[in-house]
Specification:
Helix content is 32%, strand content 25%. The chain is α/β, with parallel strands linked by helices. Strand 1, helix 3 and strand 2 form a beta-alpha-beta unit.
Length: 195
């Protein structure tokens, strides 16, 4: 964890989060059963790698389809931002509330569908494994201001998704290779406008 320059407290809270995840996973399907044995790398490190992509001075982050809190609750331990998670699954929200209390992470949890949450301006929007890039941009539109940066880790079909999204959207695109999966790409998008 040294590569992320975590403090002792951050490391302690993230390890506690990991333990709670494994404990709750036995009763609730929070993450894919195929990733349980490698949950630290597949979910925690995968979330931590977004840290350097967050613009300096960003104050508000919203995460769509947060599931078990990735990446938002991991990031909440490492940045001083107003962090919102939007998740429609009540049991996953119960888990995130529990972890947030246990690890002293400050997050606002919206237990609802994205379309039903009253939009607010976000400096950063994140989402992991929720929907296609085109659909994510549609979800993001009401939350976007001219300075919003969107950070979306995508899998093997990343470039196909990007090609489709570019048919409907103008945007500045930066690409980063994932540190946890060499066939995955992280898109950092800005300057969004509908064509």
């Amino acid at each position: 964890m040294l590569e992320f320059n975590l403090t002792e407290d951050q490391e302690k809270h993230l390890l506690q989060y990991h333990q709670e995840l494994l404990k709750w996973q036995k009763k609730i399907n929070l993450i894919s059963r195929f990733t349980v044995d490698d949950a630290w790398n597949r979910h925690f490190v995968d979330s931590l790698q977004l840290l350097p992509l967050i613009p300096e001075g960003a104050q508000t982050l919203v995460d769509f389809g947060s599931g078990a809190g990735f990446p938002a609750i991991v990031l909440a331990h490492c940045v001083d931002m107003d962090i919102h998670v939007i998740e429609s699954d009540q049991r996953k929200c119960a888990f995130m509330r529990h972890v947030s209390r246990e690890t002293s992470s400050k997050v606002t949890i919206h237990n609802d569908r994205i379309e039903k949450v009253s939009p607010f301006s976000a400096d950063v929007i994140t989402s992991r494994a929720l929907a296609s890039l085109e659909k994510l941009l549609d979800y993001a539109a009401p939350f976007i201001s001219e300075k919003t940066v969107l950070i979306f880790p995508k899998g093997r079909n990343a470039h196909e998704e990007l090609t489709l999204a570019c048919k409907s959207w103008n945007m500045s695109i930066e690409e980063f290779t994932s540190v946890t999966e060499n066939q995955a790409t992280i898109f950092r998008l800005s300057g969004l406008s509908k064509k």
